[in-house]
Amino acid sequence: MVHQDRRRFAHAALTLAWWCIYVGACVGGTVGTASGAEASPVSEDSPVSFVNDVVPVLTKAGCNSGVCHAKAGGGQNGFQLSLLGFEPLEDYDHLVLEGRGRRLFPAAPEQSLLLRKVSGRTPHRGGIPLPPDSTGYRVLKRWIAQGTPRGDTSVQLQALRVVPGEHRLEAGTTQQLSAIAHYKDGSTRDVTSLALFETNDSGMATVTAGGLVTAFNVPGRVGVMVRYQGLVSIFNAAIPLGADFEAPTSYNFIDDHVFSNLKQIGVPSSELCNDATFLRRVTLDIAGRLPSGEEAKVFLHDDDPQKRAKWIDRLLRSPSYADYFANKWTALLKNRRDDASDITSNFAFHAWVRDSLLANVPYDQLVKELLAATGTVIANPAVAWYKRVKEPKQQMEDVAQLFLGVRMQCAQCHHHPFERWSQDDYYGLSAFFTRVGRKPTGIQGEDLIFHNRGTAEAKNIKTGKMIPPAALGDLVGNIAPDDDPRLTLSQWLSDKNNPFFAKALVNRYWKHFFKRGLIEPEDDIRDTNPPTNPALLAALEDHFLSSGFDLKELIRAITNSRAYQLKAIPADGNLVDRQNYSRFYPRRLQAEVLLDAIDELTGATTNFANLPLGTKAIALPDNSYNKSSPFLRVFGRPESLSVCECERVQSASLAQSLHLMNATDLKSKLSVTGGTAQKLADDTTPLNERVSELYYAAFSRAPNESETNVALEFLRAGNKHAAGSDAASKVSRQQFEDLIWALINTKEFLFNH
Amino acid sequence: MIVLTNKSTHIPRLQCLVILCTLCGLLLCTEAVAQSVCLPAPRLLTTFPMGGQLGSEFEIVVTGQFAEQAEELRFSDPGITAVQAINAEGVAVEGRYLVRVASDTKLGLVEASLMTRLGLSASRVFTVGQLNEFVQDTGNQTLEKAMPIELNTVGNAVMTARAIDFYRFEAKKNQHILVDCAAKGIDSKLNPVVIVADAEGQDLNVERRGGAIDFQVPEDGSYIIKVHDLTFKGGDHYFYRLNVTELPEGQQVQRHATTKKVNAFSWPPDGLPAIPSGTEIEPNDSKSPQQIQLPCDLAGAFATAADTDVFEFNASKGETWWVEVASERLGRPTDPTVIVQHLNMSGEIPVLTDIAELNDIPSPIKVSSNGYAYDGPPYNAGSSDVLGKFEVKQDGLHRLRISDLFGGTRTDPANIYRLIIRQAKPDFALVAWGLHMQLRNGDRNALSKPIALRGGATMALEVVAVRRDGFAGAIELSMENLPDGVTCSGLTIPAGKSRGVLLVTASEGAPRAVTVAKIHGVASIGGQELQRRCQLASMAWPVPNHWNEVPSPRLLADTLVSVGGDEPAPISIAPRQAKVWEATEGEKLTIPLIHMRRSEFSGSIMAAKTLGEGFEKFTFDLPLDQDASDAVVDLAALKTPPGEYLIAFYGGAVAKYQHHPEGIQIATDLLQQATAANAEAKLEIARLKKEMASAAAELQVSLAEKLKAANLNEEQTAARVKTANSKLKSATSSASVKDIVDIVVSEPIRIRVHPREIK
Fold first, then answer.
1. So what's the ipTM on this one?
2. Topology of domain A157-239, per CATH?
3. B43-117 in CATH: which number?
């Protein structure tokens, strides 16, 4: 629990390597012992195809996984196979021809080194993946006995279908899946026993190596990925809770889809939150700050039925909105200070993002200005991104992950194991960045950027072929040497038919407001990782596109929805829901927001180097301030190392608790001269009113009677002279400091709820 | 008041020290730490205000570096005059001047300089305008204390570090208000950020790239202008002028005047009409190219994102056309590029074939990189503009496309260009600056070097030529209108080369003076003698190490040459006889040198190098501890062909330098005067107190008033004592002996090499 988010980050960072080396190792058991359907029976005499029969056996057995013989750098112990059999013809050469054919012995198939190894008759560090009685062993033996033919390569796999494709799966029940391979010649084959199965949420459902899915009692949607020979198919299961309830009234199209989904899976929604909760929640989410006590009072006493919508509009007009979202984007865009001389470019870049958000520059235009940036940092701060991200491949990978939600890293060396992306796709996308010209400037480490005229192309390191710019399977036409390919890429991004760009953004912003993306992780959008509410995602995408990539309008739509304004307190039965938005999922305030909130409540100011006194933590331009602020480090402010939002640590930790309780900087904030505690101590208004002021400032609400009584009792008990006196009596500053300290350490303060 | 600082003191970074120690040994390393670079040169650093209105009189405060005893503030426009301010006691106030701007003074930028004991200082830009001027209120760093300002005024302000300046103005709905902050263009170090906000300080428009905000007022009311530095730096050197003007409908935006970058020297070509003969007509892209005829002179703009303008023309095989584009040199942040293509229409599909791709105008000499060590002057005479040619390979239609390599995503109609396609008109343009050289390991100084000469000193100016349209001939350099006792020798820019040197020498007894000189280059082109004016460039700020601070070179308004007359050069090196030294091809030529030493030196030799075409490879060790030496030039080794040559020897020498030792006496005198005045004031107080003790009641009131005045006088004189003490301390520190490495240049030496006799 303590390091859950840290683990997530580490996991994310290692994801690529993990996919590359681990795939296949997760497939438990052996082919022969797998439960579930076997592959279609084949007679002993029928010819065995290396591509269609042998390779799937090796894949299912994990032989060509990243940790075994498909390990990068030559495989395992001199025997190399392609990852997951993506290159079957190369595998044939390795297996049959390499080592003067020593691995196979058609005259006595069972004496073949291959069969002796897989069956454990010769020591094999990979264990016994194929015992002699397994189906897979028999396939290999028949193939060897037939003289190790390549087989008929004309019979090519065309599609993979999983049956059923989707199903409503009651909690605790199971569903057997069948994987059906469709070939170009029209034939089909049940390849269940040879296919690989994996669930995208093991907390909701598990799947065996044979394709048997078991649903747990967590309602929602779960996907099971089925893979066979480079193709994937997905089984979508809806696990209902089964409750019968009346869906609440929708405020907008978002509610239509959220509540429709809840109705479908039988998960009731929580009630609408009260005004105080809404005000605090939406202010934190849009502007990254607490509402002031005065703002809270005015809002709560406002009778205007449109006051929530009006408050949202006001927040979106405020500079705090721009500051807060610039903080989010600049971290993802690696606005990082490695050297003191980076300060100008970092400040300029941050300001450019912030100003663009404030001016509500359309998202596609913003991204275009970033990707196709030219000139110097001072004249065009977007250029600073090219100072941080220098190589075309890195530029492409960051753009793909951040703006398309597609992780392309795997495809640099081999076909993406979970996606349809090939190496040509990888180099085709990176080719857009191959004409980025650089000239040195008078500033260390800073180049001016221009379009270097010429033909854009990138070399596929495996085939040696020069690959022209290509946008993940979409045609972008020939790009003339005079045209900047990055502009072409930008045009493709902003095309209404682009399947990734708008989707990735709305999913990212949805997560910002709801804690969980419709697709998780938010930057891993792929066929095999389906959204929990596809209709909602599509509707958000449509809305965003039709608004002209209007970021504020997207936020307006989200925060005006009833779904966003639900209580965090669970209603009957929806406590187990973690992906259907039947209630608001509380989350700890971000490091910068929390620091600002504490400053606001205590009346203190954090002093940040090179910035005016009073600069908010959400307005910090780069990561350099983490070094001087233990608070920001402990509460997980990112170091802008990656494009992954997971770099921000949002989980709780012991260090955080201790910091909030005992840290010197917190104590000094509580006792700051002229701070809230001193002002309240010096104030002469009735004590209960002063307590009320504090509650408004901390929680955007008045204290209830019990809270007031506890606070008054505490304050009076701490001052002997004031004991028993009226509410206007003197209370020491120390008492107010302790009360503020107590409020800060409540979950209500620390969380957005 | 004038601030006297010695900013040239420089301590290399630890990293540099480690490298130095490794390479050169600890001794050298220690010596390097103790050295400063370049002898003090007077510099005017700030004026406040930084501009004035036509026909007005006002007081300005100046600060400078090495600008002691400045008695005169000069402006490059004679319409502006200044006299030193006089205090109530009739004493001239250091650093304060009363300035009068005549009503017929030309609007725009002028340059101000101080005449100091070391000569005329480096200049600072000063603006002459028509608007009412205001001066920033102190403490306007919060919204609550926003300074109220009127429209159509211009403010003078200095930025405080880590602060934001606030101004408030009133405006009516639909008014266009231009908010223009001048900073970099008036020599400030400020990277200005200007924000227009509502009355509550909520940002509405932001400009961070040096542009102006054209603010359309949404509602009647108060609005806030915020100004700060991009990285919130501040201090005296971070000044700005804030123009807030109403922009009448249809009136074009007029930005505050700015200085010119160095590379602007090569624009315009001599004789170019001010107005081009044609303009581009949009849409003129590849689908509908604009038809033109050569030659042409067109005005255009990279007005929209990725704007590409295509021109189509007929040309004949064998023709050569020169293309010149100005855009960056017009002050725009652009990088024009030109592609010329032949259009083959004979097939079904038109085929375009490249015949030329024209990009930057490269710097004629290598510019300093941003690496560790000095590897070139910190001036770039090149440009991102275009100057090149294309040769027509076949008859027929051709296309020229021009685009901005920096304009892919930018829409700004202000990014104008001028395109000229002409037949060859050989010509050249010249620019000069004070010679820089490596003075010690890792030295990357970028100091402003006014031509303020010490008696007996020779200063070298590096002159660089941009050659036009194939001109490759030699360029003779000269300088005129020099002060008495000052001479100049121009080392020719040889044929095909781009660099020459001017040597400006002040005789040992040259009197204190200043003149506006002119530098010329003369070349023979097409049988005619062409003379071109050479512009002078300098740094806006002295940058001791441009590893740490990006220098700001710019063109100067005038070439001002002065002699301080107060301090001689530490050493003068000259040939023993003022004659032409004659030798025969392949022989050794011995040139006896005399060393007029007026200082001690650290180290006994100077590694001397040679300026002058054909002699650059000649080096020798010049003894600094002797009064004479011989330079033995092996003409055989240099393979010097017969001819006339002008050379000079130069190198870096570390002088034991005392800066303005007389300053100690001056400060001591001031202290004594202040102390005496203070003692007198105290005595007066004591006397008055005694008198009051015995005075009649009716006299008490008047005595009490006198005592009050005496107390005030005592306070003021005590303050004078404090100030004088501080000055004495500063003068003493400044006058202590320091190791300063400087460039030493010999007087020019004429050599005639005769052909070897053929037997």
1. 0.87
2. Immunoglobulin-like (2.60.40)
3. 2.60.40
